[in-house]
Amino acid sequence: MQSQAHPNVRAVQRALDDAGARDGSGRGSAVRLLPEAVHTAAAAAAALGVAVGAIANSLVFDADGKPLLVLTSGAHRVDTAGLAATLGVTHLRRATPDFVKRHTGQVIGGVAPVGHPGPLRTLVDTALEGYPELWAAGGVPQAVFPTTYAELLRITGGDPAGVA
Fold it and tell me: I need a labelling partner for 26 at 20 to 30 A (CA). Which of 6, 88, 96, 145 fits?
């Protein structure tokens, strides 16, 4: 079930292709399947043999009822109170699984930065800039793709932000 044929993986790859996404070596960014599902940044880092900070976690928040996608380094947590103040929202909280699925078409643990049914306001953690190659989820918990900080900003239309 969790294969290249999964509709979420196809949607993510299509979004990457449409954006002309490149990995750290300049090749087209391709979704890859890992042998096992990885539901956390630590698990993804271990499976890929990279630093946990090089994992771009896709976290969906409910920001006063609207979805906010925060792509954060796996090495730290989002400061929701500070981020809410910066964004000028009253309530910023981790979204429920149903909220995430409704707005991304994907499940928690596999939410990709792209491939959603519609555009999402996106913030990209400036801490990710320190890694020459990043890894992000590919639409299901077993799928990932390589990218760079500049590419994440470009393909998501996201804004750089300090989120920790």
Answer: 6
Q: What distance in Å separates the CA atoms of residue 138 and residue 163, rounded to the nearest whole number?
A: 22
Residue 156, both tokens? 């998501």
Q: Where are the domains of the chain?
A: 7-161
CB 111 within 8 A of CB 72: no
Q: Rounded to an integer, what distance in angstroms lies between the CA atom of residue 53 and that of residue 66?
A: 27
What are the structure tokens assigned to 87, written together?
């964004």
CATH architecture assignment, domain 7-161 = Alpha-Beta Complex (3.90)
The dihedrals phi and psi of 40, each to the nearest 5 degrees, come to -130, 160
Rounded Cα distance, 53 and 8, in Å: 25
Residue 47: CB atoms within 10 A of its CB come to 16
In the block, residue with structure tokens 């490149």? 22
How confident is the model over 54-100, as pLDDT tens digits? Answer: 999 999 999 999 999 999 999 989 999 999 999 999 999 999 999 99
At 124, phi and psi to the nearest 5? -115, 120
pLDDT tens-digit series, residues 89-106: 999 999 999 999 999 999
